[in-house]
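Hi Y.,

Following your request, here is the sequence exactly as I used it, all 398 residues.
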Amino acid sequence: MESHRQTEDQNVVRRWPIILLGFVAFVTSFGAHVVAVNLPAYASQVGAGVAVIGILIAAYDAAEVLVKPLSGAFADRLGMKQTMLAGIAVFVLASLAYLVVDPRLLVVIRFLQGAGAAALSAVSAALVGAFSQGRRGRAYGIYNSIKGAGYVVSPIVGGAIILQSSFSMLFVASAGIGALAFLLSAFLPKPKEDPEVRRGNGLRLQGLLSVFRQATLWPWYVVTVVNMFFVGILFGFLPVRVHALGYGPLTNGILLTAVSASYLLVQPFAGALADRVSPGLTIRISLLIAGVAVILFSFATGWLLFAVAILAGIGVGTVWTNTDALISQRALSGKLGATMGAAGTFKEIGDMLGPLLIGVVSQAFGLTIGFVTCGVLGLLSLALIGTQREIDREMMSR
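Below is the corresponding structure, written out as C-alpha cells. Let me know if you'd prefer a different format.
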C-alpha cells in the first residue's frame, strides 16, 4: 500500500510541470486566436480593409517562424526556464502596450506578441522533453491537449469580451493570462542541466543551423509541415465544404466542435500508445488516416462527412503529439531547445501553406479537386518516412 501511494505521489510530481507547461503554451494559442477571430471588429473601428486583416494575422505567424529557432538556441545556451519567462514577459508587455499606442500600430503589437509567443511556445515544448525522459508521448499528449484548448475557447471568450466591452480588452485578457502563466512558471523546477549546454559563449550561426541539417530529423520536419497543412485545411476549408452542401451555421458549429474535441481528446491517449508501441508507427498510420479523410471530404455528405471529419481530427491530433515526442527523442545533446524551435517553425510554415494551396487550387479547379490534390500530396509524404522494415527495426530497438 505504501509503495503504491509513493508511486502515485511520484506521478503527481512528474505531471504537474507538464500541466503547467501546457498552460504556458495555452497563452500563445489563446492570444493568437482571441484577437485574430475578432479582427473584423478592429477593421471597422479604424476603417481598414480585408487585406489589413490578412497582414495582421500574418504578422503574428511571421514572428513565430523567425523567432522559434532563435529562442530555442538561446534556451540551450542561457537556460530554458529563463528564456521561457522572458518570452512570457515580452508577450504580456506587448499586449499591454496596445492600450497606450495608436490602434493603427496593431501590426507592430502583433509582431511583438508573436515574438514573445514563439519563445514561450518553443521552450515550453522543449521543457516537456526535458522533464519527461521516459514517457514523452503521454507528456506531449497532455501538453498539446491543454495548449489546443486555447484554439477552442478563444473565439467564445473573445466574442463575449467584444459584446460586453471593446476590442482593446482582448489584450487585457491576453496579458492577464500571460501574467498568471509567468507567476506560476516561477515555481517550475529547473530541468537537469546537460553539461555540454553551457560550454562556449554566445550563439553561433553554425550551431543554430545544425538542427536544420540533422538528416534524421528532416523526414519528421516534413511530416510536421504536412500535418499542419491538414490542420489548416480541416479548420479553414471544411466549413467551406459544409457551406457548399447547403448546411446551416448550426450544423457547421456542431461539426467543428466535434472535430476540435476529437483532435484535443485523442492526444493524451495517442501519446500513451506511442510510448507502448512506437511513435513512428502511430504517426504513419495516423497520417494515412488524415490524408484519406481529406480526400473523402469531397465526396462525403451527412453523417458520413461527420464521421470522416472526426477521423481527420483524430489523425492530425495523433500526428501532432507523436511527432513532438519523436523529434524531442532524436534531438542531439545540448540541442533540445533549438530542435523543438525548428520543429515549431515548420509547424507555422505548414499552417500557412495548407489554406493557401487549397485556396488557390480550389479557385482554379473547384473544391473537389482542391481536397483531393491536398490529400494526395499529404499521402506522398509517407514515402519519406520509411518502409515496414524500418518500422520493425524501430520497434525492435525500443
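The domain at 208-398 is CATH 1.20.1250.20 (Growth Hormone; Chain: A;).

Thanks again,
Q.
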